[in-house]
Write a structure and sequence with these properties.
3 domains, binds flavin-adenine dinucleotide, Flavoprot_Pyr_Nucl_cyt_Rdtase, 17 strands, Rossmann fold, 6-stranded parallel sheet, 458 residues, 6-stranded antiparallel sheet, 37% helix, binds flavin mononucleotide, alpha/beta, Elongation Factor Tu (Ef-tu), domain 3
Length: 458
């Protein structure tokens, strides 16, 4: 042990700084939870005097924010009809809460291949492994999904089956929503009217698209062996809304032959302070070479100055942590879009480490000048990139994760949060397996359950 008083002073100072940091993180977490509770209580209070007894519990399991949006709209519809409502995420739901509730509405999406959203991981592990006694509960379930996946509404059906096996009584048959289909949402709305006794449909159709103007479009990877990727910027026509790093834009497709082909989602690559919404969009091609509907239109057909309909959606599960928390950002291809928004929002306090994979260094080192500037400013503490088509490299981003196992463990032990953005197939599964190898499956699961491991993959 050292007797040098200066060393002791340094050690005590470092310890005090560390304790202060922990206190700030805990305080911020508590403040965020209290704000969510306050929002929820406002609805619970709204109907409390209406003689409806206990507030209806509204629980949402959401991966990209749509189920959460519908949960708040459901709460508003109930409270407008005089029925109190309390909104919780599956991340904060447990069996005790369900046991103590007489009516619940569950709004549940499916991700991956029939998988639960990440925020529901703890509930699945702790609650759904065995049946519970929920004989006092009546429930309604809105299952969000997409019929192009093999297991349509897979997690919604799993929740429905578990509730029924646990003795809960359905108020009505599960309402399935295929890709945001308006008719199914109207059916849900009708069921809400049965609960409130209201005869008029509340005005809660999903918010209309806002007009945005294309102001810039650049091909960022000319000569790449991969598909063309474009950096696009849109300005709001009017006063721009607020959004946060991690949020998603829903772009409405123009009508074709009298049919509205729906919408496509894109990770936002910029911040409100940029004054514009930016994307990195890959031109997709069908097997016959025809361009993808949305990516073809946005990157080829839409003229500069042209307007599109778009709305921005809060994607809370991919929002960044407190400034002081270090971030490990992992992604491939256009996945750098969502990670770039986080880098823009970062300060040097927590800093970030980016692990990124693409095809060639010469053509696909997306946003290279910005990354170098963030390295110089200290926002980016470390940058690991690999290029699968470069002779002498040939690695994928999961190989970078595997090679950096020791340092990753060190960052995670120091409180870092992990954010993954990009391809669902290949990349996100490979990265998940590499993280499990590096950190241990239990640590990875706990991080997922605690919201310290977020994924925006598609
Ligand atoms: C949360 C989220 C974030 C996203 N972020 C981004 C992003 O930042 N950047 C980005 O580029 N993309 C992103 N995407 C993907 C994007 O939403 C679109 O899926 C993508 O642009 C392709 O849409 P498209 O309309 O051009 O293609 P579509 O016309 O819908 O076709 C998509 C692909 O499906 C296949 N396909 C479709 N129809 C057929 C058929 N009849 N036969 C055979 N194959 C077929 C083809 O391979 C085709 O390339 C994101 C998706 C999600 C869910
Ligand atoms: C990567 C990804 C995987 C998906 N997997 C499925 C699936 O297996 N089954 C399904 O019915 N829907 C699937 N969907 C569709 C979503 O459930 C649907 O888009 C839903 O509206 C998303 O709601 P959320 O934003 O609340 O997560 C998937 C969507 C994405 C982006």
């Amino acid at each position: 042990m050292t007797a040098d008083p200066q060393r002791w002073l340094w050690a005590v100072g470092a310890l005090a700084l560390w304790l202060a940091l922990i206190a700030v993180i805990v305080w911020r977490e508590r403040r965020a939870r209290a704000a969510a509770r306050a929002r929820s209580d406002a609805f619970a209070g709204a109907g409390a005097g209406a003689g409806e007894g206990q507030a209806v519990l509204i629980a949402f399991a959401s991966q990209t924010g749509f189920a959460e949006e519908l949960a708040w709209m459901t709460a508003r519809a109930l409270s407008d009809g005089g029925v109190g409502a309390r909104v919780v995420s599956f991340a904060d739901l447990d069996v005790q809460t369900l046991k103590a509730t007489d009516r619940a509405l569950l709004i549940v999406s499916t991700t991956g291949e029939g998988d639960p959203p990440d925020s529901a991981a703890r509930f699945v592990r702790k609650a759904m492994g065995e049946t519970a006694d929920l004989s006092g509960l009546r429930f309604g379930l809105l299952a969000l999904g997409d019929r192009s996946y093999d297991q349509f509404c897979g997690f919604g059906h799993a929740v429905d089956g578990w509730l029924r096996r646990s003795g809960a009584e359905p108020l009505f048959d599960t309402v399935e929503v295929d890709n945001g289909e308006a008719g199914a949402v109207r059916h849900w709305q009708h069921q809400l009217n049965q609960i409130t006794g209201s005869v008029t449909a509340p005005d809660w159709t999903p918010p209309a698209y806002d007009p945005w103007r294309l102001v810039e479009r650049t091909l960022v990877n000319p000569g790449s062996p991969g598909g063309e990727a474009y950096h696009l910027a849109f300005e709001f026509v009017g006063a721009a809304p607020e959004w946060s790093a991690g949020d998603i834009a829903e772009v409405g497709l123009p009508e074709r032959d009298g049919v509205t082909p729906g919408s496509r989602e894109y990770s936002i690559a910029s911040l409100p302070s940029d004054g514009r919404v930016e994307f990195l969009i890959r031109l997709m091609r069908h097997p016959d070479g025809a361009p993808g509907l949305a990516s073809g239109w946005l990157t080829q057909d839409l003229a500069l100055g042209g307007e599109i309909g778009m709305r921005l959606r809060t994607n809370r599960s991919f929002h960044g942590p407190a400034d002081e928390t270090p971030m490990i950002l992992i992604g491939n291809g256009t996945g750098i879009a969502g990670l770039r928004a986080h880098l823009k929002a970062r300060t040097a306090a927590g800093g970030a480490w980016l692990l990124f994979g693409e095809r060639t260094q010469a053509h696909d080192a997306f946003f290279d000048a910005e990354l170098q500037a963030w390295l110089a400013s200290g926002v980016l503490r470390r940058l690991d990139r690999c290029f699968s088509r470069d002779p002498g490299d040939g690695r994928y981003v999961q190989d970078l994760v595997a090679a950096a196992s020791d340092d990753l463990r060190d960052w995670v032990e120091r409180g870092a949060a992990i954010y993954v953005c990009g391809s669902l197939e290949g990349m996100s599964q490979g990265v998940h397996a590499a993280l499990e190898n590096a950190l241990g499956a239990d640590v990875v699961l706990t991080m997922l359950e605690d919201g310290r491991y977020g994924r925006d993959v598609y």
